[in-house]
Sequence to fold (364 residues):
Amino acid sequence: MVGTLHAWHAVERGHEVVQIEREEEARGASLRNFGQIWVSGRAGGEELATALRARELWERIGRRVPGLGFRPCGSLTPVRGERELAVAEAALARPDAADRGYKLLTADETRAVNPALRGEFTAALHCERDAAVEPRTAQLALRTALRASGRYAFLPGREVREVVGRGAVRDDHGDVHRGDAVVLATGAWLGGLVRELAPDLPVRRVRLQMAQTAPLGEQLTTSVADADSFRYYPAYASEALDALNAARPQAPTAAAHRMQLLMVQRLDGGLTIGDTHEYEHPFAFDTLEDPYEHLTQVVEGFLGRPLPAIRRRWAGVYAQCADPSRVVHREQVREGVWLVTGPGGRGMTCAPAIAEQTGSELGW
Fold:
């Protein structure tokens, strides 16, 4: 998705673009995500500014490309008890709370916004700026729109293997491609050419597990998170969070797998739920059931009903800057060649703004 949105901005600015992809279709983190445009939990400063700009761009692009499935659904984070409520209140006191669209809703107000939440909770933090797109179709829809420009070519099933000059690369078919600029948006692929060009790359790989259910049978009008997201996202850091962590640590399964609940309804009615975080290499090749059992309990507690059957389970890997304060790693690795990687879990949210910033820095 990061690479495709670089292509989008370059075409928008009048350039001709050749997009080379290793796979015939997206198979990595660009597909295996929530499709969530997640403003609410972002760190203040550059990260929040990037997410807000990306949210604006997603909406603008979504009007032109309906296949993105863009919808400004917002999010709700239901809380239980005084300690979780205190963390939500601390978030509401942030100087940038209005930029995020934060509101604190009573339980009844929460159910008025999202009637599918029939479970027990005290209140909910509402973030109006959050949104969603369809991850399984978004990249395809963007490429269809790009082709209509007449200035875009997509070359799948090829891997860039070598930089052969200024703004020139050779692929594994032996073909050389030349341009005014080459952008290597390599996702979680950090070996091979990437290692040769940037051997000390300050980026790590992270593995996660997610799932998708059968249709819910009713509309989930917002995305939903749980209070464990307070522990994971930097926007919620506060003395209230410290007190919550001290008094009530995460459930053992959630702590072991560094979990939070995020839940988004797909256009077909199914729910995408997750996720876990694994940082130690080598990653396991299989998925574990404990996280899914934990997520099922959390979701059913909010919905007040059984979770629809899980139809798909998957693991995914993304690249994340080792310094969590950095939104993305952008580096000129050769003359006319830039490497852009490491947005981490911000990738789907921030990709349009990351690509726009690359274009500005390169003078497109």
Observations:
- The mean pLDDT is 96.
